[in-house]
């Protein structure tokens, strides 16, 4: 649960977590990407970060720079890797269209989707804690 970010975003996250990944893997992936983007955008606004970020990769990068500037949080290593990788990655493709129909495509298995969810869940929690600590 996200306590310090927008409550509607927290509600969307709760609903996404209740989704049957096996039955709806594509919808689960789209929701995961959107929740990450919504949380990053809300955190940037609430923390008063003025550095511009025009896409999800940029917004996640701005957030990572704020919460893990030395890149020493082991639980964020995979998020950092996705953000600095060249080309499209499963969550940080420039557009939703690229995410769904691009060369990278959606996660190919329930296990891959669960791995992505676990990878980004720590980012969401750290951003929520950071926003809460800034008040």
Descriptive overview:
It is a single chain. The chain is mainly α and 135 residues long. It has one domain (7-133). Helix content is 62%, strand content 0%. Helix 2 runs parallel beside helix 6 (110-133). The protein is globular and about 40 Å long. The two termini are 18 Å apart. 34% of the residues are buried.
What's the topology here?
Layout: H1 7-18, H2 25-46, H3 56-67, H4 77-84, H5 96-101, H6 110-133
Helix pairs in contact: 1-2, 2-3, 2-6, 3-4
What is the tally of beta strands? Answer: 0
Largest sheet, in brief, is: none
Domains, number: 1
Query: What level of helicity do the residues show?
Result: 55-70%
Describe the structure in brief.
The chain has 135 residues and is an all-alpha fold. The protein is 62% helix and 0% strand.
Keywords:
135 residues; mainly alpha; 0% strand
């Amino acid at each position: 649960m996200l306590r310090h970010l927008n409550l509607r975003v927290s509600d969307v996250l709760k609903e996404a977590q209740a989704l049957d990944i096996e039955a709806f893997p594509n919808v689960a992936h789209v929701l995961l990407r959107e929740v990450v983007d919504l949380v990053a955008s809300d955190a940037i606004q609430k923390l008063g970060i003025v550095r511009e970020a025009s896409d999800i990769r940029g917004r996640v990068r701005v957030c990572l720079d704020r919460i893990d500037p030395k890149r020493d949080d082991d639980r964020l290593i995979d998020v950092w890797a996705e953000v600095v990788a060249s080309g499209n990655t499963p969550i940080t493709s420039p557009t939703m269209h690229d995410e769904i129909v691009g060369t990278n495509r959606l996660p190919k298995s329930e296990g891959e989707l669960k791995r992505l969810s676990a990878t980004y869940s720590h980012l969401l929690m750290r951003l929520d804690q950071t926003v809460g600590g800034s008040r």
